[in-house]
Amino acid sequence: GAVVSQHPSRVICKSGTSVKIECRSLDFQATTMFWYRQFPKQSLMLMATSNEGSKATYEQGVEKDKFLINHASLTLSTLTVTSAHPEDSSFYICSAPTQGFIGNSPLHFGNGTRLTVT
Amino acid sequence: DQQVKQNSPSLSVQEGRISILNCDYTNSMFDYFLWYKKYPAEGPTFLISISSIKDKNEDGRFTVFLNKSAKHLSLHIVPSQPGDSAVYFCAASPGGTSYGKLTFGQGTILTVHP
User: Fold this and answer.
1) What pLDDT score was predicted for residue A104?
2) What is the pLDDT of residue A60?
3) How far apart are the C-alpha atoms of A22 and A68, rounded to whole Å?
4) Beta partners for A87?
5) Can you list the pairs that A46-54 forms with residues at least 24 positions away whose Cβ atoms lie under 8 Å?
6) What's the CA gap between B11 and B93, in Å, rounded?
7) Model pLDDT, residue A68
8) Average pLDDT, stretch B59-75?
9) Distance from CA of B18 to the nearest CA of A (A)
């Protein structure tokens, strides 16, 4: 069964509004979660690392003020796309290691969120 | 700069035969490699992984081979089944505290014909 739950699976919003995406680890604690984005017919690209109790770290070229990340608890990370524009339309996916960084545990992904900005 | 490459965008295989998916990487700092299977509008599903200290890892029908000197890895699926049809991504990680920072290849669409 799924070990990482992501919600919502699909969202359509108007340009200028903000959208919040939740990522939850099920039955395990995740001090770190990762947010990826996939544009059509492209690969998954790492956006940022979400750290429980501290600020997120962003990959080069990702605007931290636009993509707000909050790691509220050991089982929940949220990604808020602020002032969304049509070019933000994409597939957003989170992942979490089930055993931290010990033993190269499998990295499980959520089912993703399809964001469409009109 | 594509650090992880899957040069075959697609692969077509007959049911029961072997599927071989290939992946090349350029960054020698990668320490851990993973294969994922993905359907449209879904998150990737973990299949199998291999550490850089190994050259082979097997799990059921799936075997991953790693050739560090050539910076090449491959995923073998034997026997292939129609349900294996999906997009397959290889991913690489620097390991350590950056373990979760995966760099993905472009993906290979595998089609297994009955």
Assistant:
1) 57
2) 94
3) 12
4) none
5) A46/B101, A46/B102, A46/B103, A47/A92, A49/B100, A49/B101, A50/A23, A50/A77, A50/A79, A50/A94, A52/A77
6) 25
7) 97
8) 97
9) 25
Given a contact cutoff of 8 angstroms between Cβ atoms, the answer to whether A65 and A81 are in contact is no
Neighbour count for residue A82 (Cβ, 10 Å) = 15
| Residue B47 reports pLDDT greater than 60 | yes
A49·B101 Cβ contact <8 A: yes
What letter does residue B99 receive in the DSSP assignment?
A: T
Residue A42 in this model has a pLDDT that exceeds 60: yes
- CA of B52 to nearest chain A CA: how many angstroms apart? 11
Sign, Cα dihedral of B39, B43, B49, B51: positive
A6, A32, A106 ranked by CB distance to B46: nearest: A106
pLDDT higher than threshold 60 for residue A101: no
